[in-house]
Specification:
InterPro entries: Porin_dom_sf. The chain is mainly beta. The chain is 8% helix and 52% strand. The protein has one domain: Porin (Beta Barrel). The radius of gyration is 20 Å and the shape is globular.
Length: 353
């Protein structure tokens, strides 16, 4: 392995990691017994990365709670002669405020050029069956994209999600208005749909509004099934679109998930497949667990422009309670824009409060 160059920004990333690892004491919470993280089914689909700040159902009165997380990563990529790089992947802080029927959240990422991530208000009825969101948050499209990065057993969302959101501006965080219906008695049916600000074209002109819709059910506790769609410029004839179907299964420590997406982009029709498997192994120590993980993805452009990409990832995570994890992973991938496939090794340390 070649000799790496550790930049000043890299040293700042490491210092930020060590600093925030001690920040849990800032939150005014009673000391709790550390328990291994468990692969429980999430209470609801997050529209933000601030799941740590969500209100508990049995809480009363006005509450304000800070939350945050930091990810620091060192990686070595075959396509760059295994030169080591240290980066601060995320340094996120936020504030969640709540009343019985109203919640608000603001989140910023200090490591990003676009610091503001989430800023929204959520209004609900007394039974929590109806919710209305307004502000900037995640559009309800792609299960992989909606999952909090903290809960993902892999370091990245993957080439399919990145290609759709970053390259073709489908989904992700947008200014918008969204309604949500939750019917627990009907297999915990959840329907989320809204209208969102459109992307900008190559000249910087804002395009028309987009629309997104997601439906999910849980026939039984271990299984969740879902479908979602995203439509661009929906009031001007819908130029591009994508549709996805997903399933996740949780049995004890085992978690399996898969998602299929298809549609039409500016480059023509496309298809994508994502699969992920992990298993939680408590170590018998106070709060510690081991989590092996493996995943695969495939992306195909099937129009006049034909191309193909793929990614294979495997690794192991070391978890401590719900506040710290270390991830060691290897990925062999051919991403859009790459001339050749390459191997990348990564080590990531993460903490949250």
């Amino acid at each position: 392995m070649g000799r790496g160059k550790w930049s000043t920004g890299g040293r700042r990333a490491l210092m930020a990691t060590l600093f925030l690892m001690g920040a849990r004491g800032w939150a005014q919470e009673p000391i709790e017994k550390m328990e291994p993280p468990s692969p429980e089914v999430p209470a609801r689909q997050p529209v933000s990365e601030g799941g740590e700040g969500l209100r508990k159902e049995d809480d009363r009165g006005f509450q304000v709670r800070p939350f945050g997380r930091v990810f620091a990563r060192v990686s070595a990529d075959e396509r760059e002669q295994y030169t080591r790089s240290l980066s601060l992947q995320s340094a996120r802080v936020g504030l969640a405020a709540s009343l019985p029927y109203v919640e608000a959240e603001v989140t910023a990422d200090l490591s990003s050029k676009s610091m503001l991530k989430d800023a929204f208000v959520r209004v609900a009825d007394g039974s929590k069956q109806l919710r209305l969101y307004g502000g900037q948050f995640k559009a309800p499209f792609l299960e992989r994209e909606l999952e909090s990065r903290w809960n993902l057993p892999v370091m990245n969302r993957g080439l399919v999600a990145d290609y759709l959101e970053d390259t073709h501006k489908l989904g992700g965080r947008r200014l918008g208005l969204m309604g949500e219906v939750n019917l627990k008695e009907a297999w915990k049916l959840r329907i989320s749909g809204g209208v969102f600000e459109g992307a900008k074209d190559a000249s910087g002109t804002r395009l028309g509004e987009d629309a997104a819709l997601r439906v999910s059910v849980r026939p039984f506790k271990a299984l969740t099934l879902g479908a979602s769609t995203y439509l661009t410029e929906v009031f001007d004839g819908t130029r591009h679109h994508a549709m996805a179907a997903d399933a996740s299964l949780r049995l004890g420590g085992l978690e399996l998930s898969g998602e299929y997406v298809t549609g039409r982009l500016a480059v023509g029709p496309f298809m994508g497949q994502m699969g992920l498997a992990s298993y939680m192994l408590p170590l018998g120590l106070d709060g510690w667990a081991l989590q092996p993980v493996a995943g695969a993805e495939l992306l195909q452009l099937t129009g006049p422009l034909k191309a193909r990409g793929y990614a294979l990832v495997g690794g192991i995570n070391i978890l401590y309670s719900r506040h710290f994890k270390a991830q060691l992973q290897a990925e062999h991938a051919l991403r859009p824009g790459d001339e050749l496939a390459g191997l990348e090794y990564s080590l990531q340390l993460a903490t949250r409060f």
